[in-house]
Design a protein that fits this description.
The chain is of the alpha/beta class and 231 residues long. It has one domain. It has seven helices and seven strands. The strands form two sheets. The chain has a five-stranded parallel beta sheet with strand order 5-2-1-6-7, with helices on both faces. The longest helix has 16 residues. It is globular. The two termini are 20 Å apart.
């Protein structure tokens, strides 16, 4: 039975995002949604000696109230060196810093010519997916015809993708029309983000909800041991 998940693109997402990708046959990046400020689309959290810190990609938002995520442009490429500098400073004492920093530097610099936020997010997500050994097909909502309200749009993607199972994040419980999915014989399942093991973060106390970059720099090739791939 084909299982799919649908989520908006995030900047260097947390580990749960990649667990969701791994669990499904097709992962659809829903970037036709309206861009929202102060959200995960263009920023994420890392650990530093002074506590949690946001890494934020600057994007064009002035007078663009209805732009979609895929239409959102970055203001410049200076953010790349700024983010790399912050990562190097914050994680230089992490157990796997020397092992991983060259790879992180490389995948960031490959974004220098990208002007759209969604393309940057996709590139970084794809590289992390490859690093973790995930084989899931990744597609875009633009590959499908989207109509209806919020719940109907998701269901229509499922129908066009030939999905028999839709794996959703728990936040969608507030708006998904489960009866409509049941009528179309699409089984809705809810992602369980509990049960993650703690890993050795360079700056305690342990915080779970940070970018997966934190996990990679602290544990390197052992990162998948701290995901729920084998749960």
């Amino acid at each position: 039975m084909k299982c799919i998940a649908i989520l908006q693109s995030n900047y260097i997402p947390w580990k749960g995002y990649f667990d969701l990708i791994n669990y499904v046959d097709e992962f659809v990046i829903y970037d036709d949604a309206q861009y929202t400020k102060r959200d995960w689309r263009n920023r994420n959290l890392i650990k530093t000696k002074d506590g949690l810190k946001w890494l934020t990609i600057p994007v064009e938002v002035k007078n663009k109230f209805k732009q979609t995520i895929r239409e959102t442009k970055v203001t410049n490429s200076n953010w790349i060196n700024q983010h790399l500098k912050t990562l190097k400073y914050s994680y230089s004492k992490a157990d796997c810093y020397n092992e991983m920093i060259e790879w992180i530097n490389k995948i960031y610099l490959q974004c220098e010519k990208e002007v759209f936020l969604s393309d940057i997010n996709l590139h970084l997500i794809n590289e992390i997916v490859k690093f973790l050994g995930i084989k899931t097909r990744i597609s875009f909502s633009t590959d499908y015809i989207i109509e209806g309200n919020r719940s109907e749009k998701i269901m229509n993607i499922c129908l066009q993708a030939g999905a028999e199972v839709y794996l959703s994040g728990p936040a969608a419980k507030s708006y998904l029309d489960l009866a409509a999915f049941d009528k179309e014989r699409i089984n809705v399942k809810w992602m369980n983000y509990s049960g993650y093991k703690e890993y050795p973060q360079v700056y305690p106390p342990f915080v779970n909800e940070v970018s997966i970059i934190d996990l990679i720099l602290n544990t390197g090739i052992d990162s998948i041991k701290y995901l729920n791939f084998f749960k």
